[in-house]
């Protein structure tokens, strides 16, 4: 491997790292794309104008063309579940069935089932959050772990499970020329392992907290509108 190839690979890695860092800092995504493309082009010794005009735009348009209907149908379904409150009803039924004492299992599982059904992560988060807030209150659990429980259920095992009608599956299946059910056995076993390990991890984190932190619900009540506003900000940290 010659020096130019190594430099090009390092440029790609640097662009990916820069992408994550800038997104986490709230920089506009279009500006991020412009900067990261420049990094890849310069380290790969590609003409900057041609990189933007040909390489970047051809890739962007091709990606959008190949996956447009996946984005469209997913958005429509998510909006329908949000307007009809279907996602909230399903989540409430599952959580009520398992009980508040199993909140750290019930909430990720409810989010996972909704995600496997095709509902987008953001719709799930905002639909389940009010229920999670109430359940954590009843179970006397630290509310700071609500985003962890929601994002674990929304963004991990269910999104990549075989057969899930999510872009994470559709894009890869399209690129590899396979169905979204490819590798079903291995996929389901892996997703189940992710669910178990994630729930154990959540339980271990909560268990380490002292009793004083658990009783903050009684000592300092925060209005729901403030919690919801802060939760929206927290969700931005999981965009990458």
Automatic annotation (TrEMBL):
Keyword Membrane: yes
Coiled-coil blocks: none
Species: Fusobacterium necrophorum subsp. funduliforme B35
InterPro entries: Glcn_transporter
Keywords: Membrane, Transmembrane, Transmembrane helix
PANTHER family tied to this protein: BLL7963 PROTEIN, GNT FAMILY GLUCONATE TRANSPORTER
Gene Ontology MF term list: gluconate transmembrane transporter activity
Name used for this protein in its record: GntP family permease
Cited Pfam families: GntP_permease
Transmembrane portions of the chain: 6-24, 29-48, 60-78, 113-133, 145-164, 184-203
Domain of life the protein comes from: Bacteria
GO cellular component entries: plasma membrane
